[in-house]
Amino acid sequence: DVQLVESGGGSVQAGGSLQLSCKGSGFIFRSCDMAWYRQSAGKERESVSTINADRSTTYADAVKGRFTISRDNSKSTLYLAMNALKTDDTAVYYCQAHCFPYTYWGQGTQVTVS
Questions:
Q1: 66: closest CA among 83, 79, 80, 81?
Q2: 59-104, pLDDT tens digit by residue?
Q3: Which of 6, 25, 29 has the alpha carbon at shortest distance from 94?
Q4: How far is CA 40 from CA 16, 48, 92, 114, in A?
Q5: Which of 7, 14, 36 is closest to 88 using CA atoms?
Q6: Up-side HSE of residue 41: CA atoms within 13 Å toward CB?
Q7: What angle do CA 69, 73, 79 make, to 5 degrees?
Q8: What are residue 31's phi and psi, to 5 degrees?
Q9: Which of 20, 77, 104, 113 is deepest in the core (most CB within 10 A)?
């Protein structure tokens, strides 16, 4: 079975840092485009950052310069390093794997910035 398991969320003060991890299994991780999404209360899920199989990356304007996405194909793990966190970053963060033609989602991890 395909699984994406996020970890690393938690509560942090504004200006602090967190690193999220997403461990994939049941699919060929290195062949998939990966992404982090987030969803705040009352808002739609939005893309935070993507990293393709070729390691090209994109970032939402709101997180550019503060967040860094990376992947370790040998560990089938996706990361999101989050620095200079703001209260607006409070959300449930989801890991996504796009392995054409399929898309898989993790269960989410809560990040709360106060």
A1: 83
A2: 999 999 999 999 999 999 999 999 999 999 999 999 999 999 999 9
A3: 6
A4: 19, 12, 6, 14
A5: 14
A6: 5
A7: 25
A8: -90, -5
A9: 20
